[in-house]
Amino acid sequence: MTSLLVIIVLVLLAVALWQLTKIFDLTQVGSDKDSSQVASDNDNNVQGYLMFGFLAFIYIFTIYGLFKWGPLVLHTPASAHGGQIDNLMNITWILIFIVQAITQVLLHYFAFKYRGKKDQKALYFADNNKLEAIWSVIPAVVLAGLILYGLYAWTNIMFIDDEDDTVVVELYAQQFKWTARVAGADNVLGKANVRYIEGVNTLGVDLGDAYAQDDIVVSELHIPKGKKIHFKMRSQDVLHSAYMPYFRAQMNCVPGMVTEFAFEPIYTTAEYRELPYMIEKVANINSLRSKKSVALVAKGDAALDPYAFDYLLLCNKICGSSHYNMQMKIVVDTPEDYKKWLSEQVTLAQQMKEATAPAAVEGAMSSDSLKSNDTAAVSKIAMK
Amino acid sequence: MSAEGHDHEHEHHHKDTFITKYIFSIDHKMIAKQYLITGIIMGVIGVGMSMLFRMQLAWPEESFRIFNILLGDKWAPNGVMSNDIYLSLVTIHGTIMVFFVLTAGLSGTFSNLLIPLQIGARDMASGFMNMISYWLFFLSSVIMICSLFVESGPANAGWTIYPPLSALPQAISGSGMGMTLWLVSMAIFIASSLMGSLNYIVTVINLRTKGMSMTRLPLTIWAFFVTAIIGVVSFPVLLSAALLLIFDRSFGTSFFLSDIYLAGEVLHYQGGSPVLFEHLFWFLGHPEVYIVILPALGITSEIIATNSRKPIFGYRAMIMSIIAIAFLSTIVWGHHMFISGMNPFLGSVFTFTTLLIAIPSAVKAFNYITTLWKGNLQLNPAMLFSIGLVSTFITGGLTGIILGDSTLDINVHDTYFVVAHFHLVMGISALYGMFAGVYHWFPRMFGRMLNKNLGYVHFWVTAVCAYGVFFPMHFIGLAGLPRRYYTNTNFPLFDDLQNVNVLITTFALIGGVFQLVFLYNFFSSIFYGKKSVQNPWKSNTLEWTAPVEHMHGNWPGEIPEVHRWPYDYSNPAHDEDFVPQNVPMKPGEEVLHH
Lengths: 384, 594
Hints:
Oligomer: heterodimer
Number of strands of chain A: 10
Distance between the termini of chain B: 23 Å
Strand order of the largest sheet of chain A: 3-2-1-5-8
Largest interface: A-B, 133 and 145 residues
Strand content of chain A: 5-15%
CATH superfamily of the largest domain in chain A: Cupredoxins -  blue copper proteins
Shape of chain B: globular
């Protein structure tokens, strides 16, 4: 069926092409029978009008795109610094649209207006220092403004003040999953290195370090609203990138070093779900999904789950075969809910104790066999 | 400066055998044709790959027989593309298009063809080295193609081949034999590129004909000359990065690797850093985009002036902007690494230098537009592609202001916004430059004309499709869609972008298929095209003073002497609307420009 469709499309394309060439041929009927393959006055005329038409195409396509696809674009930032980024982005967009609108008009309109005619001579106009000075200085001044605003915002966002009252969280990347480590009561992460990876301690935390005792390892991260979260990123294998689009946050995770990013969430997950634009977006996605589900059910497959918005951490640096499915849910809680969530979590140290305890009680399962089980599991994951 | 001593010796014709004429030729015109045809073949492969992965992105849950036919049972069982081969297609598409088509195919073709002909030289400074340069390029192309067929699959760590992914076969299957061949191919490619570049530089400096001062050079030559210098400065750095990566891969060194736990074991690497590789890679990688775009801009300058029947506006400003872009291009590489983990202070510096590049670029765009103003535009296919280039160069260049700004880059880095930006500004624009060059100089290369109506169809369909593909792509990037995802179905969040992806793919497929029009026109016109006259476009530059039939040494008898700049179009002191460079100044004629 698909091959038939492909063939039909190809045939139609060929017909379209044949017709187009014929149209161009026809435009030359009546003009001097010239086969030099150099543009004639008639060609200049036709192509000049097409240039004008192309200008219309660019404009209509742009306006259509803004209405049709504009609403898809990331909206209302969920972090304190996000407003600054979006503000600068909007200013830049306005400038871009102004320049784009003017230059494309000039370019295509000139191509139409000055299309060649036999007995016409071009103006000999080789140089004008004043004009060139104008279009060097204006971009320079405008760019200077953008650079200053940009650098101001960049410095605010990227230079993290250690004195601040922050919540320290580690984002740990591996093929193809994220894990988070919350620093716990002391708000300091214990030392870690891949060489400590063993059993439940999949992040290689040095449990001999006093700071590590209260660290909590989770696969779904909760963070409190209204407090700056200081993320420290690590990777155990290849480059990954921790991308949190709704927070306007991204930083690469590099094996062998710790990278950092900090932001303050300003909407809880529940609050963000209630934003009018998000309600609309989710409704749209769900209507698309239910349409798709109908087709799936007809084929005998399971229907798709309805979608509810959640903040996500995505991997945004190619990291291997399953790069396309490396994600973690992030939940922004009110400070109270966050405290409650935190109190329900088990520290890594306790987990380690529990993991070794049954072995000690039963005595049957030596720590060695536990380790080999675990390596088998890891290599199974790697095989995938 | 001149080569008077040689003039007469060259008139003797060597008896060429088939091998010395068509295969191991040392004649720059033949080498240019070899580069072009190899580039076109690689282009067909590169564009074909993009059509396959675009189909995967638009219809991720469908199966296509064509996948199975082209990729085989291993990579597309039952017509479903595997995730590994998807990444391979993306990787090799990038590599082929950037290096094999738009560097070697574009620079190699037109630098070789035009440098000797436009400066008035018998041939390149070293014809032999030129021949070696082509054959190394050919060899590297063959190795790259061979890498597509190895058992563990072609390289698939992205064309930027960041380690550790590219260094460890355990991390991804393509980092085995596929990556080895990729590195070998690129090392040979770099050697080829360096030989070519050195030759271009030496030829431009030493072999200009009498009267051809640097400020009488056509802008094409300025662009090729400066491009060659950028290449010589930056390609060796990529070679060293590739060599160090080979060391890490094969000899257990740790230049780019440290603290790695993979497949259940701790690897021995200690003390290296992938960020170092990123620095080395982008020290070439960024200048590389100018290596790609500058020759296209040079070609455009020449074609717009000729077909506007007007001097290029601001000749000296154009030269200055080429030099400024070349200089700045070597100190902006860090804008690819704002969020790589390097010190944010460096990010500030690179933002500053990056946005500076907008100034010479703006000068060029405005100068092109002013050249059209009050011209007498001959809208040949070459001219359409040149105008198209200016259009996409502006559209794509403007979004560079967003990506070059570290603050804004945080959220659009590595999304489809980046893909849209660079495809317009250096992919499509450079391709347009290459097409423009082919339409314009085809008569000079093959002595025949391309069919103009096929050329018009080719341009308009391509122009609509190029915007159709890349304009919507900006929106899905701004919606936060990461690039290099095999499918987006694991993120319901992106479900509302699927329709846009289908539209993009539709345009991509139509645009891709319509390139057949060009291929047909190109190959049939070589044999059956209308015979060309000596100077079909009524152009001023020296290549059109040479006879249509190719000959060793380019000109029978003396090399023409140059008396004026190349842009005396519609000079009021003359009746004709063009005055070739070898026409002496009339008594009392003033130099009108600068």
